[in-house]
Amino acid sequence: MTAKNEVQLADLRCLCDPSMFNFKTTADVDPLDQVIGQERAVRAITFGLEMQSSGYHIFVTGPEGTGKTTIVQEIVRKAAITLPSPPDWVMINNFKDEYRPRSLPLTPGQAVRFAKSLNRLVSDLKIRLPKTFQADPFREKVNEIQKRYGERKKAQFETLDRSAREKHLKVEKTPSGYQTVPMDGEEPFTQEAFEKLPEQQRAAIEETVQAFQEEIQTAMLEVSRINQAQQKEIQQFAGESARFVVKNRMDLIREDYRDQEKVLRFLDEMQEDMVDNVGLFLPQQKEGNGNEVPPDTLELSLNRYKVNVLEDRNGLEGAPVVFEPNPTYQNVFGRIEKKAFMGTLVTDFTMVQSGSLLQANGGFLILEVESVLTHPQVWESLKRALQNKRLFIEDMTRDMGLGTASLRPEPVELDVKVILLGGYEPFQLLQNYDSKFNKIFKVRADFDYEVARTDETVRLYAQFIARVCRDEGLLPFTADGVSAVVEYGEKAIDSKNKLSLRFGSVVAVIKEADYWAKKENSELVTSAHVVKAFTEHRFRYNLYEEKIHENYVDDTIMIDVAGEAVGQVNALAVYQMGEIAFGRPSRITAETYMGKPGVVNIERESKLSGKTHDKGVLILSGYLGRTFAQRYPLNLSISLTFEQSYSGVDGDSASSTELYAILSSLSGIPIRQGIAVTGSVNQKGQVQAIGGVNQKIEGFFDVCRSKGLTGGQGVMIPAANVKNLMLKKSVIAAVEKGEFAIWQVATVEEGIEILTGTPAGTPDAEGNFPQDTVYGRVQKKLENYLKQSLKLKKAGESFDS
Question: Catalyzes what (predicted)?
């Protein structure tokens, strides 16, 4: 059966024949303009982009290195270019509530022009309005108003003066107001003269003065009314003059935005505010203390007429596509900045900054979910914004109870499609524990990591290489160079029937092969350069692999690769160090003896065993019971261990190996130490597929080669793993020379025969195995254990009696 189970040379690796390509170099190939092997994901993304109903945002899952980000951006950009460009967004002052500034949409590409127009308007009015108020017509009109009202005030005072003379009184103006003085003929009474008057006369004069004081108050009230009327008429005239100037200048701006109702409404509000606050445009007035108004204060006041450009679409074709690599709250939702002014922090609507969500408004926003979830406030706010279709730009410090009073801009209407990129774990976490997630992200696009290897996909690989060469400015690849990259794609996925879609590592090999070709002054990249790139890459990363290997060479780690031993088998394990995975053998030993504890897993007892490995060991009890305990119980103890294992063991790929060691120990038949074994086993005795088969075979081969190839060495693998074989050429060469072999097995019975050279045995109708088979000798050993235990039990009963 050993020869029958040997894997044929042609099955050890799938070679890509360069003759299948009809080109000499990739310079003759049309660069790839489609996505390889991701039809499911592409269709899902396209559906999500075109679906306009609420909640159809997209979550893209898939392993790292499959090109999710690049592919998604390409698909989204192709969709975006067919859509109309969304409006610009500016923030404007709310003249009714300066703490609630408003956002204003504008026709795409007009935001900056609109802001500049209003800046020029303010600068122009600072010149025109003072000139208007200093011009002769304005001054003459003001003088005419003042003269007219002055005459009315003069008439009022003349009437008051006549009334005073009739009452022998005189009205005198003092710093504290108007004072009434009694007259003695043509002269005011002196104090001495007034006191000499008879008391009755003095009282009459005082009563007259008191009564006249009310006339003065009535007259002063009327004068105040006249002053107010004068001021009102002057202000009204000044307002009309200012409105005339402002309107004439602003009408030029209105003409450019006559089809945008919101803009026109804002310009009307601004015009009225400018007329009401025309003094801001006039030369600075001195304050009561004689100091001039600080220039910075005046400029801050005029900021009310500025426009804060949040987003300008000038030059944009189609809808925006924004990828936010650092989704902090401020980067996604925007911020309200502050600056120091006169010892305090101040802010206004001109210091509001937009985030990527507003930048993508009307288009598409791409985020990496792992980065988003590191900022919980971002995730919660993002869901709220997408559900309500409104964007709030807020000051986070205020929500946390920090900082001073700030702005609360009115929300922006939001129309954006969000695409989240992530792995399976965050997707499952959100789907299971976030009740709103499935309502918002209804589309899942799942990227595959492999594609079936067909002539078509191989040709697409060649086009992909041509595209990378074009985009990165690399040397063209020859046909055999392309073949080498295709074989790398097969080996990366451990399958002869699949190609890897993890293009990140494939691109790295292409670039590094180009480097070695240029270093040799070659004009083309050949298969030799691709192999050089792969081997050099591994050399840079495999120091740890070499250190481990040295331990096998100097016998620090005890491994026999020749001879035979009872209850001892070489298992195979895979070490993972970053990008590098490599296999190395481990010795498994089994000791069997009388007793009832069953299988004792030393790794488990010493807490060095993982759950999967524990499960694999427990399965062994099921198989042993099924095979050997149908007529009588197993009176058996088994001790299993990985020798020289100190860092823990997990996985069930050694379960068949452990079973072979147990069968060898029970039967007393030695196992060939030149054969290493991998494969998990079920309770039926079927050998199941495992991962890392190529690394395991190559790792054992390296150890055997270092210790010396004998021709009787090799690796036994599950038959289901033959399709995964993509072995390195040194292993294939050794197999071709007969120095090494690969065996495939589907059952434990096939495996034990290869390892021992003795048939496993087939039971008869009564369940007895032939004596000269492995299972026959196991059965005999178990019967002896049972008989011996019965004798001991009987002897113990006699002793007790």
Answer: Hydrolysis of proteins in presence of ATP
